[in-house]
Specification:
By secondary structure, the protein is of the alpha+beta class. It is built from 6 helices and 9 strands, in the order H-H-E-E-E-H-E-H-E-H-E-E-E-E-H. Bound molecules: nickel (II) ion.
Length: 206
Amino acid sequence: MRLRAIVLAVLGLLAGMSAAIVILPEARRKLLPAGERIATIGKAQIGGPFSLVDHTGRAVTEQDFRGRYMLIYFGFTHCPDICPTSLQVMSAALDKIGPLADRVAPLLITLDAERDTPAQLALYVKSFHPRLVGLTGSADQIANVAKAYRVYFNKVKDEKSSADFTIDHTSILYLMDPNGEFAAHFTHATSVDSMADRLRKILQER
Ligand code: NI
């Protein structure tokens, strides 16, 4: 389990770095040597429409969150370590920015259509943040939203799990603006303080 956690942490970091290279001109400038800079691409192609079910059983789409920022984490409730850590950091950062957080909808989109029913998500989300919304759906609905957000996930055999499988996945948090456009991303390695600072800065600017 520890090895998997380390491998996932490294993969997550690499994914975050490569996402940063693709997405953010300023991050690219920091990560790539001057001679290797490539032409800046336009608006980040992250996100898009989704059709899911929330932890109360209500059908929701991205339109239900228009007018608010969405802070989205992709994970699953049976994740042993990385997901809970990321969700704790996300929740603590939201608490830290006070009333500004009211403009942010914290979302957990599960990558485990099989086990993460609305009822399972309802039990899980309340242990992190009172406003955290758990979203699930059919395997196709989840595959579609993961693809739109460029999140990698893969079901793998795990004898230690009661269901005999676990899910390897990208650990990344996306902040989408009130129009559903990409605003920022964080990795699970982002600290509470730096996430709170970045959120505060973005929310106060707009
Ligand atoms: Ni996880």
